[in-house]
User: Fold this.
Amino acid sequence: MNICNNEFEAKGEKKMEQAISHGCGCAHEAEKPTEILSDEHRVIERVLDALQRLTAVPVNQSLEQWRKALEFFRHFADQCHHFKEEKVLFPAMEEHGIPREGGPIGMMLQEHEEGRAHVKAMVAAVEELSTGTGAADEVLLTHARAYVTLLREHIQKEDDILFRMADEVIPEDEQREILKQFETHEAQEMGPGAHEKYLGIARELEAV
Assistant:
């Protein structure tokens, strides 16, 4: 049984490494921008699982894990992943007739802002708990649970609806150009070694 478990964990780790390297810094290996974004979703989901587990243990015993999870969400999920959607993919979809206002893009952008508000509140709560200046446990847990629910539903909508629309309306030559823009963003905004760093954080949190 232990051998089987170890094999399963090894396969899961390999898939996560492929996803995060494919999605963050290796756009040339993908054929479509949505492949990269979907791969990144898989990594984000695994850290969401870790965050949910953190809500079930005493906060004062796991503040370092909370900090790592929030760093992952602030930088990998938002600065890396959401930037690609907001600054590159969504504008390309708009150019091909997918409306922002009153359409799926507008909804996704609104949910991005909701997610940022939850993360900001969690960061403030962790800081308060770290300094011992208040009792922010319930605030932290409330926002964490809301964030997990929001992001899981958000990811499903993007994977099942929005990305399929993008694949249909954006021509192949433009999709290749978007992949290049993804690579440029990685180099300029995230810096070398970023995906390895966040893979490491994800790996640590999976052990929680």
